[in-house]
Amino acid sequence: MAQMYHINVTHSGRYGTEVTDPLAEDPFDYQLTKSGPIRVSRGGRLVVTVGGREADRLAAALERAADEHERQLLLAKVTGNYKRGNERR
After folding, report:
1. pTM, rounded to two decimals
2. Residue of 79, 49, 43 whose CA lies nearest to 71
3. pLDDT tens-digit map of 23-44
4. How many Å apart are CA 79 and CA 81, to the nearest integer?
């Protein structure tokens, strides 16, 4: 399985409150399989298996990603588990 990164990223939020990055606190893991599909998991549980052309595009995008945060965003988008801005807390 791919190595899991634990990075605590904080930045200033609205009104001076400190906001932590949820993808850094609970990151996605991924595993490139020999047969082609990519297994994406979070918290030790399989979230989605991406296959076919989408897996090829994802693998290329993960390789091109500038840093771990960008890889985490790609994985969140492929799983459909990313904040759209309209969720309530």
Report:
1. 0.68
2. 79
3. 777 889 999 999 999 999 988 9
4. 5
Phi and psi, residue 12, nearest 5°: -75, 130
- Which pLDDT does position 24 carry in this prediction? 73
Q: What pLDDT, on a 0 to 100 scale, did the predictor assign at position 51?
A: 95
| Secondary structure letter of residue 26 according to DSSP | S
Q: Cβ atoms within 10 A of the Cβ of 71, count?
A: 21
Cα separation, 26 vs 28, whole angstroms: 7
| Number of helical (H) and strand (E) elements in the chain, helices listed first | 3, 5
Residue 33's SS3 state is coil
Other beta carbons within 10 Å of 7: 13
pLDDT at 85: 55
Q: Are 23 and 11 in contact (CB under 8 A)?
A: no
- Helix (H) / strand (E) element for 49: namely strand 45-50
Q: How far apart are CA 5 and CA 82, in angstroms?
A: 18
